[in-house]
Amino acid sequence: MRQSNQAIIPKPGADKLSAPGFLRRMAAVCYDALLLLAVFFLATAIALPFNAGQAFAADQFFYPVYLLTISFVFYGWFWTHGGQTLGLRAWKIKVLTPDGQVLNWRQAGIRFIGGVLSWACLGLGFLWCLFDKNGLCWHDYLSKTRLVLQEEKR
Fold it and tell me: What's the CA gap between 44 and 49, in Å, rounded?
């Protein structure tokens, strides 16, 4: 079992060049955001009858928590089943553990919460990969995971 304070060390041969660049990451984020928006429309259509068909008010605690849960299930399922959301697949990126395995639900949860915190800090957690020697973001470090470029099939 890995100690909790141990940093992510890339596998031999997995140098910084195997980490996707910032623009590629953001392109995958935008792609996934559009897909998640469509999922939000469906989730809202399912939830509206439980709110008497009325729009959700700003003081209703349930709706934002519901959408956050839907977001976690969306990302968590993809990350634990193959390591790629549709956006990651389109941009040939995969999220894996340092030993090349797909994430478990605990890692997916930590990565999701870390991603939310990365955005909450005005995106600084994502910008971190521009300066990090391993090309990792805050949520990569928190969840002990990393994004890697998928090898081209020839």
Answer: 9
Count CB-CB contacts under 10 A for residue 76: 18
Task: Give the number of residues written for the chain.
Answer: 154
The whole-model pTM stands at 0.84
Judge contact between 145 and 95, C-beta under 8 A: yes
Q: Would you state the structure tokens that stand for residue 123, as one six-digit string?
A: 């995106």
Q: Distance (Å, rounded) from C-alpha 38 to C-alpha 35?
A: 5
CA–CA dist 55, 76 (Å, integer): 28
Q: How confident is the model at residue 154 (pLDDT cuts 50, 70, 90)?
A: low
Which strand (E) or helix (H) includes residue 143? helix 138-143
Helical spans, DSSP H, in 1-154: 22-47, 62-80, 86-90, 105-120, 124-127, 138-143
**CA dihedral (111, 113, 117, 120) positive or negative:** positive
Whose structure tokens read 């470090």? Answer: 141
Q: For residue range 64-108, what is the model confidence (pLDDT) as tens digits? A: 999 999 999 999 999 999 999 999 999 999 999 999 999 999 999
In Å, how far from its chain's centre is CA 136? 13
Per-residue pLDDT for 46 more than 80? yes
